[in-house]
Amino acid sequence: MIIDMFLGERFGLMGDDAWEKLAISSFYSNIHFLRERTFSEVQDVPKQFKKEARETFFKHTLRKFIEDHEYHLAQNGNNGHYVGNKVESQVIRARLFFVIGQTRLVDLTQL
């Protein structure tokens, strides 16, 4: 995460001022929270509880995550960005997480 933040700063993906940087860092941290929840609530569960764990994850954890992020995106004008009108580092990270998660690391439908 620290390297991601460093590179985000280096390439101008961390906002234009202290408030934007803090907001972007907050959303970015939240994406890591979802990643941790994916593993702790779904993948690292005894086999006999996986189906129930997956259902709970989809119904509660993932739904809340999506609702929260949709709210913040709407507050920024539904322009596809969390802060301002340009790409931020957490957007790149979120897209990578979901693409990799769907194709390689975690196939939630198979748990």
Explain what you see:
This protein is mainly α. It has one domain: Glutathione S-transferase Yfyf (Class Pi), Chain A, domain 2 (Up-down Bundle). Helix content is 70%, strand content 0%. The protein is built from 4 helices and no strands. The protein has helices spanning 2-10, 18-43, 50-75, 89-105.
Question: What does this entry show, briefly?
Answer:
This protein has 111 residues and is mainly alpha-helical. It is 70% helix and 0% strand. It has four helices and no strands.
Defining key terms:
mainly alpha; disordered C terminus; 111 residues; Glutathione S-transferase Yfyf (Class Pi), Chain A, domain 2
CATH topology: Glutathione S-transferase Yfyf (Class Pi), Chain A, domain 2
**N-C termini distance:** 27 Å
> Quick one: how many beta strands?
0
Low-confidence stretches: 102-109
| Main sheet makeup | none
Helical stretch tally:
4
Q: pLDDT average, as an integer?
A: 77
> What is the CATH C level class, in words?
Mainly Alpha
Tell me the domain tally.
Answer: 1
| General shape | elongated
Radius of gyration using CA atoms only: 15 Å
Estimated helix fraction = over 70%
Order of helices and strands: HHHH
CATH architecture: Up-down Bundle
What structural class do you assign from the helix and strand content? mainly alpha
How much of the sequence lies in strands comes to under 5%
